[in-house]
């Protein structure tokens, strides 16, 4: 089954069924992220993501535009009502 076929089939699921699919898919992704690859020399997805984050650290540390919204981190979050 292709990705497009799966996406088309999701339209026919109830909300509860769709949430179950999302739950199972998320659990599978977490297993993949934390599982060692078949090749002993290949990094895990978790290690690849860590390396990617590390490689971007200097850009983040030296570019004020990338941090412009971090000043809002200390602001209280207000939920919209209605």
Give a verbal description of the structure:
This protein has helices at residues 3-10, 15-34, 45-62. It has 82 residues and is mainly α. It starts with a helix and ends in a 20-residue tail after the last helix.
Cα-atom radius of gyration: 20 Å
Strand content: under 5%
Helix content: 55-70%
| Low-pLDDT windows of residues | none
Distance between the termini: 41 Å
What general outline do the C-alpha atoms trace? Answer: flat
N to C succession of SSEs: HHH
Major sheet summary line = none
* Discrete helix count: 3
Q: So what's the oligomer here? A: single chain
Task: Return the structural class.
Answer: mainly alpha
Number of strands: 0
Average pLDDT, to the nearest integer? 84
Topology overview:
Blueprint: H1 3-10, H2 15-34, H3 45-62
Name a few traits of the molecule.
3 helices; single chain; mainly alpha; 0% strand; flat; 82 residues
Task: Offer a quick outline of the entry.
The protein has 82 residues and is mostly helical. The protein has helices spanning 3-10, 15-34, 45-62.
């Amino acid at each position: 089954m292709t990705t497009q076929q799966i996406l088309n089939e999701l339209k026919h699921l109830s909300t509860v069924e769709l949430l179950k699919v999302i739950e199972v898919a998320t659990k599978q992704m977490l297993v993949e992220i934390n599982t060692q690859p078949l090749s002993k020399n290949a990094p895990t997805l978790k290690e690849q993501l860590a390396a990617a984050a590390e490689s971007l650290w200097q850009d983040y540390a030296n570019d004020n535009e990338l941090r412009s919204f971090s000043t809002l981190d200390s602001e209280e979050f207000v939920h919209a009502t209605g």
